[in-house]
Write a structure and sequence with these properties.
The protein is mainly α. The protein is 57% helix and 4% strand. It has a two-stranded antiparallel sheet with strand order 1-2. Helix 2 packs across helix 3. The longest helix is centred in the C-terminal third of the chain and has 24 residues. The radius of gyration is 15 Å and the shape is flat. The termini are far apart.
């Protein structure tokens, strides 16, 4: 079994707020985009993720099949984002 170590990467909110000139409204807008374009598609596929400081947390009861299902959903989300980007749509 491979043990993943946290990277120490900051939460996206912390990163956004660290830029001078980024106001709270911009942070809220980015959060809305993330929910709409990433989190909602997972929920539609009955996959619940808990994004936390650039990690996905899971229960000790999570099975290999659960992980595989999440990876398939993640691939689909990334493909949709890439397709939108190629089509020139605002991500």
């Amino acid at each position: 079994m491979t043990t993943l170590k946290p990277t120490g990467a900051p939460d996206i909110d912390v990163v956004l707020r660290s830029f001078s000139g980024i106001d709270e409204n911009a942070v809220v807008q980015v959060q809305a985009i993330l929910r709409r374009r990433i989190l909602r598609p997972f929920v539609v596929q009955s996959v619940l993720i808990t994004p936390f400081h650039n990690m996905l947390l899971c229960s000790p009861a999570t099975s290999s099949a659960d992980v595989q299902r999440m990876l398939v959903a993640f691939d689909e989300v990334l493909a949709a984002l890439a397709q939108d980007r190629l089509a020139g749509a605002a991500v």
